[in-house]
Amino acid sequence: MKTTGPSPEKRFLVSVAENLLAAQQEIDDLILQLALGKAEAKDKFEELKKDFKASMASLKLQVISFTGSGVNKKTQDAIEQLENVLEKPEANGLIEFEAQRTKLLALVETIQNEVEEWLSNKQLSHEFINEFEKFKLKLEILNLKFALKRFEVKDSVQDFFKDSAKALHRIVDSAEDSIAEGEDVWIKAKKTIHDTYKSLKKALH
After folding, report:
1. Which of 9, 42, 60, 68 would staple 185 via disulfide (CB 3.0–4.6 Å)?
2. How does the average pLDDT of the chain come out, rounded?
3. Is residue 180 situated within a structural domain?
4. Does the residue 1 lie in any domain?
5. Torsions phi, psi of 110, nearest 5?
6. This prediction's pTM
7. Tally of domains within the chain
8. Domain annotation covers residue 204
9. Residue of 105, 164, 111 lying closest to 136 (CA atoms)
10. How many Cβ atoms sit within 10 Å of the Cβ of residue 114?
11. How many Å is the Cα radius of gyration of the chain?
């Protein structure tokens, strides 16, 4: 008897949820390292900039491979500016960190808006959005660490992270069941990404 594999829609949603789970684990690890004093905010900021630059380079190559051409001029200019900021000297205090953070967030917002519109419902776009949202949330966490003398992780935050992970696992386990008849899978995936990061940010505060 011939069996059919997972539908493209299910594979897509599973990929989105798995990426979110991996990102959430990264964020959870960062919070714990900072709270336990196992990492300095300025060191983690430099590490974040280096990793994000590598992610952007990788995603740009994927776009060229996927579309046969590079990003549009406006987006390319913003990416080049972003790369320049990512290469700026180490931020040794809150003022230097805040100056770089403000520039990075503005450029990321510009690029993200362009990419979301440009790639529309192409599967590659969810990888971009996840990287952008993860980067912004990590910047938020580092901002809290730079600004606060004491950085603690409340039980409510850990509980929320666990609940969020369970919700993402449910998507992985029953992606097809979670797609309503006639529902646009891209819109659902995009909403899942944005809602997850919005909730995680809310939990931190």
Report:
1. 9
2. 81
3. yes
4. no
5. -60, -50
6. 0.84
7. 1
8. no
9. 105
10. 17
11. 18
